[in-house]
Amino acid sequence: MLIELAGNNLTCVRGGREVFAGLSFGLCGGQALVVTGRNGAGKSSLLRMIAGLVSIAAGTLALTGGDADAMPGEQAHYLGHLDAVKPSLSVSENLRFWATYLGGAPAGIDDALDAVGLEPLATLPAAYLSAGQRRRLSIARLVAVKRPLWLLDEPTSALDQPSQQRLAELMRGHLAGGGMIIAAAHGPIGLDSPRELHLETARGSMLNLRGSGLL
Amino acid sequence: MSMFFALLARDMRLSIRVGGGALMGALFFLIVVSMMPFAIGPDLNLLAKIGPAILWLGALLASLLTLDRLFATDFEDGSLDLLMMGRIPLELAIAAKAIAHWLTTSLPLVIITPVLGLMLNVEMSAMGWVSLTLLAGTPALTFIGLIGAALSVTLRRGGLLLAVLILPLTIPVLIFGVSAANAAIVGPTPFGPPFTILCALSLASFVLGPVAAAAALRHGLE
Questions:
Q1: Residues of B whose CB is below 8 A from A97
Q2: Nearest CA-CA partner of B94 in B85, B84, B107
Q3: Contact residues, chain B, for A50 at CB < 8 Å
Q4: Which helix (H) or strand (E) holds A182?
Q5: B188-198 tens-digit pLDDT
Q6: A214 touches chain B (CB under 8 A)
Q7: Is ipTM > 0.85 here?
Q8: Model-level pTM?
């Protein structure tokens, strides 16, 4: 059965302010959706909402065709602005922990490190990694544990050109395997013809902000 | 279950590595208890009388000292988001973190307690009993403190708020811990009843702490 993610009339409220309302989208296995919009339009909030980290104020979100017992967030990888890398653990220890915690089996650690080009640094404490290398270690998590939905928040930030191409290859491979990708991005992320979801900044939201004394 | 143990092992490994803070609790405890005889003076009878109370207060403060970083480090580097997306319930993940914290900070404190009896003029045989009360009671301190750590996770200076929130909740643990220790050393009240209540407090907080902390985290992270 083909996996499918559908959001219907989603409303997100954060800090008493409506970030977006009435947002609907649909996505099938093998498809990618790029979320665009100005700063503060709610791109990250949408990804966090799908990941189950922000509650849904109104509307429904359903993932069909996957594991019926698991929430959408438990079947998704979330690559946020922070890399979730512990400086005092080595590169492979970091990855091994997340692979076990998120997937249950620490298999394919070396392959995943190889896929992001970090294999030579496997025993190095992660404290010595550069920002781009930390990002790649974070991406290795998506390779090591199979989850059908990837939620990527500006995935190309801090990555150099070869790493961006490698990430694009990984994304294409994931899509070819029937996976789904939702990415928030300001520029092209290296996918051929992703569908686009443009978030408009709600006009009233800025006024609300001023009115509530937050600005 | 492999996920539970993976998190437990990771947290223990983190706390014994550089900057992890394992043994900080035990060292703080050592200093606080060693300072007491200097403050109170060389009255041996008085020291023996208030020794268990000093040990318990020291243990209480030492376990609060390190608790505020329990979720804060994971929150700051984004790990907490991923911990919430795991296949095991957040409550279990929190319990794993708390057990790791207890094993690396409170257990060393319990182990060094008998030695500190020398400073407080408490007999070695009696110190065994005091250690036993700490062994039974410190899990309650960790698991109650867990709630405060979860509530204050997004605050910059969360440690102070943590102490204010949590110390009143630990009063029952302190009362029964000290009375069990006193019963063991000087009598005449029996050791059993306060000790069983202490165990009950630990078991109850073991169940309630992770649930309350998970609720606080889910709410606080939005």
A1: 6-7, 10
A2: B84
A3: none
A4: strand A180-184
A5: 778 888 889 99
A6: no
A7: no
A8: 0.86
